[in-house]
Amino acid sequence: MEVTGARQERAWQQGVLPPVEEVRPGLWSIPVPFPRNPLRYVLVYAFALEDGVAIVDAGWDCDEAWEGLKSGLATAGYQISDVRTVLVTHLHPDHFGLVGRVRARSGARIAMHPADARLLRHRGRLDEEDYAHVSREQLRRAGCPRDLYTGQHAMPLVRFEACDGADDALHDGDRVDLPGWNLRAVWTPGHTPGHLCFVERDLGLLLSGDHVLPRITPTILLSPGHERDPLGSYAASLRKIADLDVDEVLPAHEWRFRGLRDRVHTMLRHHDDRLAEIEHAVRSAPGITAWQATERLTWSRPFQQMAQPSQRLALREILAHLVVLSELGRVRETGDPVAHWYPCPVSDGPLLVPQTTVKEFPR
Question: Which stretches make up the Metallo-beta-lactamase domain (predicted)?
Fold first, then answer.
């Protein structure tokens, strides 16, 4: 893999915000602050149009990010009122958060995959209470300590208002209506059910959202109401884009790079290694709960030092891997009200994320 966003990588190492850059004529990279988060910023991409500008993602919903987005657009020669379209890679609030403010100021159309748009529909109080109950039950059944799931709520999403929603649904392979650009949507579920990447075929660019990042791997969580097997979907989505004919990858975090295929294979190996580590934990302690397995695994920092929200995310990440191991016939789940995991009698062999199929994007 070759780093092409050298100024971005240097800024990362220095702990500062990278500059606004025109990465191709009429295409700008705008870092929007993501306060109090180790990711630091979201890279919003702005495409010049004859009558304004289109942006990919918008940033976290806070005043610091709002000012950063306005300042970045100004550097490119635009104002918020010039935004005609917002293309949303996925539903997470660091990407979708400011979409409502942008639309209110500009009248921009919002385009995203319907699977994520559905999850952002307005919820009433009773809907929120029902979801919180399901979320707590999932953690309880995984063996999570009571003080970590009592009263816990999932990461709050920025939602559409009542009787509102996305203006345009983008499906796999759709041509995006941006005059002057040859941009197509690529459906890459896993990180979220409706995650989208965008390919600019004439320029050989992949706007990868959170699907492929140069330094870290995105979290793949078993979240209530989302996919049954998010890791299987994610692995299939990685394989789907591995051989795209692109010269450069423009991610939503960190920095630009070349070498998509090598990076994809590195990320797949990471998940295969993680599956092997989790299976080993189950075989070493038959009847282990998902929470106990999570405590035993290696993390970038000691698990007991993580804040409670991070521990819950870690647990849901391990649950996603246990689903794959169960599908592979390597482990089985039993017990209620708390689930316990046992090894299955299988022959030794390579542990690979299953070759799940996601519709192929036409190259």
Answer: 41-253
